[in-house]
Design goal:
The complex is a heterodimer of chains A (284) and B (327).
Chain A: H1 2-40, H2 44-49, H3 60-68, H4 74-105, H5 111-121, H6 130-139, H7 147-150, H8 157-170, H9 173-181, H10 186-215, H11 218-223, H12 232-238, H13 248-282
Chain B: E1 7-8, E2 11-12, H1 14-42, H2 63-69, H3 72-103, H4 113-125, H5 128-138, H6 145-152, H7 164-192, H8 196-204, H9 209-220, H10 222-237, H11 241-246, H12 259-268, H13 274-299, H14 302-326
Antiparallel strand pairs in B: 1-2
Helix pairs in contact in B: 1-13, 2-13, 3-7, 3-10, 4-7, 10-13, 12-13
Classes of the chains: A mainly alpha (284), B mainly alpha (327).
């Protein structure tokens, strides 16, 4: 009895430290966004007087009016980002699953070398070869063409790797064989039997591919030079320019508009996202 | 390990393995391998100017490379990249380890563990461009929340954007803030993957929790830790949005310029020196290839490699036996 109380007594201070640290970190995550949302509703004059406030004000519409006359166009940016990210996500998830299926379900001579190549190039970011990519796209007249940002995700080595690791223990090759005996073609087996089995893995990868594509700045900024093609991050990067220098409230509002859709999606899917991040390390 | 479906009723399915890999292979060759080789080639040429596409090879093929390696701005950006990465990674890993230690204690039941994880990971999914400009506004001068706080405490307001060290520290802090939650979740799930019997037998042997952490958890996490280190370093070497946007193009006086910002500035502004930018990219490419080679050896499926080797040996033995029988 006494020993037990000793243990609880000893553990308590450590627990307090734990909760204090965790709560401080949580506040650290929220605070910048809170200030941003609050300032988005405050006038430039209010921000100038006191730039930190956790209480919203009533100048949201005025800030919106200031924004609407300038280059930052959240609707165009949103639509462009949505088209590119949706296209890239579909390509990456569908074709990576197909490639993983080729690696798991069939024995072919080049299977192992092919998988080795995929693993070898998995970690290399596309950013380091952007100069050649840009020149190549420029010659093909594909700058300002969304396909230049969508099609490359058909070859997503890291996604293929993840899909293969998930498929190995999950997919029953006996079931594939019995579907064959029923007379189903190979491509049909993939679409109507393999895809449903792979849905959880595809959903996880879809979330991460979408977020990565939505947030990327380097490649879109190089390729998309026309204003009507700008994505959301390019629009955001313009907020650093001189025309916004003193429009404090409007800049915060623009930032808030770029964050809001991501936060909504994040809090709806957070459970799956956290599980997906954890899975990435377990499945390796 | 996995038999694969080779033949049913004498039909070979191997061709479907090739067929289903075609989209990946074509797109990889077209959009990935070719641009990589093209970047390498441009590094040996005189390609510059905004709409230029034709080029000549240089008489001294390595002129761009030696030029870049001797370029003071490139050297500075390379050092900056490493410095910013290190001052972000050490606290990031330390905090992630502390959280892992706390969140994997079996005796403790942390209330709101899920909510904490969601909060810690949140900055990671927000657009880096937005985060950079948001922090630029927060540390703004003369008008900005941090300066408001300084004023409230009766301190003089401070222009963070003109101080080299303040700028570097803030960029590193943003990286830390965006990535510690990710690292913590990876490490926590790594610890949860360790065989619990190891901890049970350590407890029976009278090991303290600290001993168990240093003698069991850390050695078991070695691979994941190395993986985290190298992937973070590769990411760090490509750091772009934060240093580009926090303090316009790596300011003040290139103090927060990273190699990616340097490459972007060389290729897509001013005189459009594609050849110099390509040479700088290739230098970074080689460093990253060396780093990812380490990851490759870490992650390679050892069991599978062994199984394949055994299968090959068995096949060879069979062939030899058949030949012997024929002779």
């Amino acid at each position: 009895m006494t020993t037990r109380m000793d243990i609880t007594a000893r553990r308590k201070p450590a627990n307090v430290v734990l909760y204090v640290v965790c709560i401080l970190l949580a506040i650290l995550s929220i605070l910048p966004f809170w200030i941003m949302f609050a300032n988005a509703t405050r006038s430039t004059y209010q921000v100038q007087q006191q730039a930190i406030s956790l209480i919203p004000s009533s100048y949201l519409l005025d800030n919106l009016k200031v924004l609407s006359g300038k280059t930052f166009d959240p609707i165009v940016g949103f639509i462009n980002s949505l088209i590119i990210s949706t296209g890239a996500t579909f390509c990456a998830v569908y074709f990576s699953t197909l490639t993983a299926y080729a690696l798991v379900a069939y024995s072919w001579r080049m299977r192992q070398p092919f998988f080795t190549v995929i693993m070898a190039v998995m970690m290399i970011p596309t950013q380091v070869t952007s100069i050649g990519f840009y020149q190549f796209m420029y010659r093909l007249h594909m700058t300002n063409n969304f396909l230049a940002l969508i099609l490359p995700s058909i070859a997503a080595p890291a996604t293929v790797f993840f899909m293969r690791q998930y498929m190995l223990p999950t997919l029953s090759l006996d079931m594939v064989a019995s579907a064959r005996i029923d007379g189903a073609g190979e491509f049909r087996i993939f679409n109507s039997f393999v895809i449903p089995v792979m849905k959880p893995a595809m959903a996880t990868q879809a979330i991460f591919t979408f977020v990565t594509s939505w947030n990327s700045l380097f490649m879109p900024m190089i390729l998309l030079t026309r204003k009507e093609n700008y994505t959301m991050p390019i629009m955001v990067s313009l907020l650093k320019g001189d025309i916004y220098k003193t429009e404090y409230g409007a800049v915060y509002l623009a930032l808030a508009m770029s964050v809001l859709p991501l936060l909504v999606v994040y809090f709806i899917l957070s459970k799956y996202i956290i599980a997906g991040v954890a899975l990435g390390s377990v499945k390796e | 390990m996995q038999p694969g479906v080779k033949r049913i009723k004498g039909v070979s399915y191997a061709k479907y393995g090739y067929l289903f890999s075609i989209p990946f292979v074509l797109v990889f060759l077209f959009f990935s391998l070719y641009p990589t080789l093209y970047t390498a080639v441009i590094g040996f040429t005189d390609l510059k100017g905004v709409t230029t596409t034709s080029f000549n090879f240089l008489k001294d093929p390595f002129a761009n490379f030696t030029g870049i390696l001797n370029n003071a701005t490139f050297q500075k950006s390379f050092v900056n990249t490493l410095v910013i990465w290190i001052i972000n990674f050490i606290p990031q890993l330390s905090l992630a380890m502390l959280l892992t230690y706390w969140f994997t204690g079996r005796a403790r039941n942390i209330r709101g563990e899920g909510v904490f994880k969601v909060m810690f990971y949140m900055p990671n999914i927000i657009t880096a461009a937005t985060v950079a400009i948001l922090f630029a506004s927060i540390f703004g001068y003369p008008v900005g929340p941090v300066n408001s706080i300084l004023k409230a405490f009766g301190l003089a307001s401070f222009d963070f954007s003109t101080s080299p060290w303040a700028s570097k520290l803030i960029v590193a802090f943003i990286q830390f803030w965006m990535w510690y939650g990710y690292t913590a979740i990876i490490l926590i799930s790594g610890v949860l993957g360790i065989n619990p019997e190891l901890f049970e037998s350590a407890e029976i042997d009278g090991a303290s929790r600290g001993q168990a952490f240093f003698r069991i958890t850390l050695p078991c996490l070695r691979t994941i830790l190395l993986f985290t280190l190298i992937t973070s370093l590769i990411g760090g070497l490509n750091m772009f949005e934060i240093p580009k946007l926090f303090n316009w193009n790596g300011g003040p006086a290139n103090e927060t310029m990273t190699t990616s910002v340097f490459v972007y500035a060389q290729a897509f502004s001013g005189t459009y020196l594609y050849n110099r930018a390509a040479a700088a990219s290739m230098i970074m490419f080689l460093i990253i290839v060396a780093l990812s080679a380490i990851v490759f050896y870490l992650m390679r499926d050892r069991y599978e490699a062994r199984a394949n080797r055994q299968a090959r040996q068995a096949k060879r033995a069979l062939r030899r036996a058949r030949k012997g029988a024929a002779a």
